Structures are given as structure tokens and as C-alpha cells.
């Protein structure tokens, strides 16, 4: 089994790290540069930065915050939020990110995935997906629908079909976020993650619901995820990245230990 990655997620609103539950009731909790530096020093494998209101507000990402975070860490750093064009991607990569994450912009213009992959390489393109459980139908046979604009807008897209299409267009990785589990800290959506992991051949990052090392272990084994996003449990210091990795290693999950 390949080494599993632990990836802190910095949801940023108006220049501050923020956290809510199911994309609602967000509370600002701190400075993104300070959080990034802390998690880097603790041994996280990568970082994800999302400007969570950029798409809904139809504005550009806060590039100055991206640049400041990139200067504070020396690990892979993925950035998303409001990316709609190749030039948006280029600006983020030049600011220090190693990957760009497309979500709402990719739904509105799927060609941006293939254009980005051709220009920068598939390894730079992450397709981020916000999926919510719905009643299965002819249009959405899997029972998970894709939402955009910070989980505000339903699209009518089936999550599994969108995952396959994103892979075919050139995405090098998928980040699958469960709207139902987001911020709840009650565990990742294992059926959703496993279904998408089995449908594609590219790495899948599980997001939404991580509340313990057990949850990470479950999503990386039962859910077949290659990596897990963590946020609330480390932002609030219920645990730390070293503690999570020691626990996971003790359970037999391969993780990168650097202390």
C-alpha cells in the first residue's frame, strides 16, 4: 500500500481561516499564514488553500494571501477558489502553488481542465467536487449530485460520471468533499469515497467529516482514498498532525513520519 497523505485544509474568507458545518455558520478562527507554518512544522504532507467565497462572489482569488502562505511552507501546496481561466491558474502557480484546484469554474467550463493539463501538466490539476446525497434517478444514478458555488447551487451532474469525465479531461487528482459530512467530524462518507475511487484510476482525496485518526484510517482502507483532508480537529487543537500520524502508523497505515 502506498503512503497515505494527511492534508490540512485552510478555508479562507476575507483573509482569515474560517470553518463551518455543511458550508454554513462559518466562524473566522485565525491567520492562514500562521496555520500553514504550524502544520508544515508539524509534518503535514501537503496543504490545501480554498478561497471559499471567490466563486460565489464571481471575483479573483486573494493572490496576496496565496503568496504569503507559499513563502511560509516548503511542501506541495494546492490552491482553489474562483479559478476560471488559464491566466488565473498561471497567476496562482507563479505565486508559489504547486497545484490548482478547480471546482465551480470546471463545471461551467469543463475545457479548463484539459487546457490546464496541457499547459501545466496533469499533476498540477486537481478537480474538486462538492457532492451531496440525493434520491437516485435516471439523471443521477449514483445518488450523489454535484453542487457548486460553495455548495449553494445544484448542477444536475452525477458525481461518479463527473469524476470519470474529469479524469478523461486530464485532471491528475480528485478531491471529493461530502457536503453531508462537512465539518461534522463524524467520519468521512465512505460509500461516496469508495465508489469514486473505484470508478477512476487517479488519486482520490477524501474530504468532509474527519474527526479522528480512526476516521482517516477508515477512509483510506474501506474508502480506498489516497489522502485525507483534515480541518476542524487540528484547527481547534483537539489533536495534532504528529499525534494523528503516530496513531495511524500504530494501526498499520503507511504514513510519512519525519520526526
The largest sheet has its strands arranged as 1-4-5-6-7-10-11-12
Query: What sort of overall outline do the alpha carbons produce when their principal axes are compared?
Result: globular
Kindly name the structural category.
alpha/beta
Count the helices. How many? 10
Cα-atom radius of gyration: 17 Å
- The separation of the N and C termini measures 21 Å
**How does the major sheet shape up?**
8 strands, parallel, barrel
* Level-1 CATH class name: Alpha Beta
Count of strand segments: 12
| Strand residues, percent | 25-35%
Average pLDDT: 91
Number of self-contained structural domains: 1
User: CATH topology, what is it called?
Assistant: TIM Barrel
Bin the helical content.
Answer: 25-40%
Describe this structure in words.
This protein is an alpha/beta fold and 259 residues long. The protein has a single domain (5-250), classed as Aldolase class I (TIM Barrel, Alpha-Beta Barrel). The protein is built from ten helices and twelve strands. The protein has an eight-stranded parallel β-barrel, surrounded by six helices. A hairpin with a 2-residue loop joins strand 2 and strand 3 (24-30). It starts with a strand and ends in a 9-residue tail after the last helix. The model has no long low-confidence stretch (mean pLDDT 91).
Provide keyphrases for this structure.
alpha/beta, 27% strand, eight-stranded parallel beta barrel, 259 residues, TIM Barrel, single chain
Amino acid at each position: 500500500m502506498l503512503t497515505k497523505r494527511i492534508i490540512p485544509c485552510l478555508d479562507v474568507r476575507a483573509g482569515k481561516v474560517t470553518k463551518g458545518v455543511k458550508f454554513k455558520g462559518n466562524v473566522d478562527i485565525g491567520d492562514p499564514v500562521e496555520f500553514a507554518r504550524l502544520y508544515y512544522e508539524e509534518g503535514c504532507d501537503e496543504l490545501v488553500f480554498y478561497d471559499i467565497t471567490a466563486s460565489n462572489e464571481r471575483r479573483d482569488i486573494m493572490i496576496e494571501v496565496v503568496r504569503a502562505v507559499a513563502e511560509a511552507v516548503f511542501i506541495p501546496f494546492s490552491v482553489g477558489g474562483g479559478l476560471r481561466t488559464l491566466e488565473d491558474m498561471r497567476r496562482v502557480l507563479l505565486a508559489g502553488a504547486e497545484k490548482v484546484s478547480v471546482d465551480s469554474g470546471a463545471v461551467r467550463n469543463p475545457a479548463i481542465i484539459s487546457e490546464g493539463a496541457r499547459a501545466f501538466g496533469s499533476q498540477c490539476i486537481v478537480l474538486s467536487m462538492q457532492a451531496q446525497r440525493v434520491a437516485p434517478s435516471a439523471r443521477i444514478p449514483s445518488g450523489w449530485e454535484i453542487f457548486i458555488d460553495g455548495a449553494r447551487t445544484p448542477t444536475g451532474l452525477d458525481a461518479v460520471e463527473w469524476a470519470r469525465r474529469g479524469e478523461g479531461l486530464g485532471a491528475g487528482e480528485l478531491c471529493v468533499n461530502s457536503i453531508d459530512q462537512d465539518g461534522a467530524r463524524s467520519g468521512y462518507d465512505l460509500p461516496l469515497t469508495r465508489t469514486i475511487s473505484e470508478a477512476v484510476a487517479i488519486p482520490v482525496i477524501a474530504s468532509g467529516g474527519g474527526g479522528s485518526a480512526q476516521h482517516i484510517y477508515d477512509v483510506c482502507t474501506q474508502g480506498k482514498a489516497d489522502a485525507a483532508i483534515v480541518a476542524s480537529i487540528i484547527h481547534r487543537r483537539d489533536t495534532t498532525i504528529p499525534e494523528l500520524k503516530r496513531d495511524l502508523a500504530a494501526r498499520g497505515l503507511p504514513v510519512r513520519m519525519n520526526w
